[in-house]
Amino acid sequence: MPQAGTLDIQHLHKYYTVNGASLNVLENIDLSIQPGEFMAIVGASGCGKSTLLRLIIGLDNEYDGDIFLDGRRIEDTGLDRGIVFQEHRLFPWLTVRGNIETGLLNNTRFSKEEKEASVRAHIELVGLQGFESAYPQQLSGGMSQRVAIARALVNRPEILLLDEPFGALDAFTRHFLQDELLRISSEEGITMVLVTHDIEEAIYLADRVVVMQARPGRIRRVVNIDLPRPRPRNSNAFAHYKDDLLQDFSVGGHPEEILAGNLEQPA
User: Fold this and answer.
1) Rounded CA gap, 7 and 82, in Å?
2) According to CATH, what is the number of the domain 33-80+158-267?
3) Do residues 100 and 134 touch, judged by C-beta distance below 8 A?
4) Is the Cα torsion angle 40, 45, 47, 48 positive or negative in sign?
5) Neighbours of 117 (CB within 10 A)
6) Alpha helices of the chain — where are they, by DSSP H?
7) Phi and psi, residue 112, nearest 5°
8) Can you state the angle between helices 112-125 and 141-153, rounded to 10 degrees?
9) Which of 66, 88, 253, 256 could lock onto 148 through a cystine, CB 3.0 to 4.6 A?
């Protein structure tokens, strides 16, 4: 089982230069995520959620402040972090096994035997035994995302980042994969950070939900989800959390952000 990582974000600011002017994207982000914790980040489009994930994964190192993983400042990509995007981004010319193996290309820690064992273990982890030789065009959208999750986990990272991983899937497949993600989280024991527009998804999956405020991106508040698992989506307690979180997007004069972000409305 991989080691769960501790993520500390301190006084984080991120700017872009647009037409010679400075655009403030993230402002004064302070957040600590504990080992094995499942954290969800919600907010309307343009609040900097995906930008924050890019900084954590190490795809962009131009920022002010600090991001630490287990006390080490993040300045580049590394095998201690895995990421899954909304689109699975599988290579169409490779099989399921081949796509998962690409996650190990830069791994010099594992021997050949350890790499083969890790690929087998993660095919089993995501329930794709028997599909090892299948190509992406032969898979459903949900199966393709399971391959992407296995590829992100095959290095046994300390933290898994998920950027709207189920946003393009139908409701039935999305709910099924949410349960699969909880199972994988329990079995792997690693830290997970999910970015989503879906308030219900955040409540269902996360230990804590970070609510982002846009222009510039700031943390409005962090909500502890004190519900035992499995969490019935139709319970009064679940509905209370959903109504409470939605108030952040309906109060304050920005109802258009709900529509822009496709945030779910209460029934």
Assistant:
1) 14
2) 3.40.50.300
3) no
4) positive
5) 12
6) 49-57, 96-101, 112-125, 141-153, 171-188, 199-205, 236-250, 255-261
7) -60, -40
8) 140
9) 88
State both tokens at 132: 């090892």
- pLDDT tens figures, 67-110: 999 999 998 999 999 999 988 899 999 999 999 999 999 898 89
- pLDDT, one tens digit per residue, over 176-211 is 999 999 999 999 899 999 999 999 999 999 999 999
- Cβ density class 204-227: b for 16+ within 10 Å, e for less: bbbbbbbbbbbebbbbbeebebeb
What is the Rg, in whole angstroms, of the alpha carbon atoms belonging to the chain?
19
Q: What is the mean pLDDT of the chain?
A: 90
Q: Are 247 and 227 in contact (CB under 8 A)?
A: no
Backbone angles phi, psi at 125, to 5 degrees: -60, -40
In one-letter notation, the amino acid at residue 247 is Q
Domain ranges in the chain? 33-80+158-267, 90-156
Q: What is the pLDDT of residues 245-264, one digit of tens each?
A: 999 887 554 443 433 333 33
